Amino acid sequence: MEQHRTPPERYGPRRGSPPTAFPPQARRRQADERRPGPGAPRGGRPAQGRPAQGRPAQAPRSAARPAPAGRPLPNPRLTGLGGGLFGGAAMFLLGCLDQLLFGASLTVYGVLFLPVCVVTALWVRGGDLMTAPVVAPIAFAVGLVPVAESSGGMGGRVMGLVTALATQAGWLYGGTLVAGVIVLARRARLMRRRALRRRTG
User: Fold this and answer.
1) pLDDT digit string (tens) for 72-127?
2) Has this prediction a pTM greater than 0.85?
3) Angle at which helices 169-200 and 106-123 pack, to 10 degrees?
4) How far is 58 from 39, CA to CA, in rounded Å?
5) Which residues have a Cβ under 8 Å from the Cβ of 171 and sit 6 or more positions away?
């Protein structure tokens, strides 16, 4: 009997045969590799300037900040009442120091009165500038209480205060004049600023 010989099997798919089917895991892997990433646009090119998903965007490093300058000088703004309280409290404390350190010297007290008038006139706010020359004599009188000589009793203290005011009137007028000049200068400056704002506005 004749035996039909079977042709030897050739490796690889035959021509015209359908491609071999891949397992589902391989299909998913190929689909993931072909699929563009979340940050890449359509076309396969990665997007520039977009952070990858899951990583926070890093802020650009700013230039080194310059070291802060020295602390600015205090520049408070006192009301009219606040300026009067400040001047009276400052002169009372200076009068007590004058009595303890210099034996209640009226000359030292008058010299210390001038910087208090300057500071009060500079620290009063713009709406209450005219109160600075008014509160200066009141502060001078308040500070004379621990400095003025008294023979005893309320009447003697009042007489000592009146005498000190009469003998030290030069320092009183001088401090009040300094405060008035500073107030007028600040007033003129404020008026110039307002005029400039009106022109530019």
Assistant:
1) 545 678 898 999 999 999 999 999 999 999 988 999 999 999 999 999 999 999 88
2) no
3) 10
4) 16
5) 109, 110, 111, 113, 114, 140
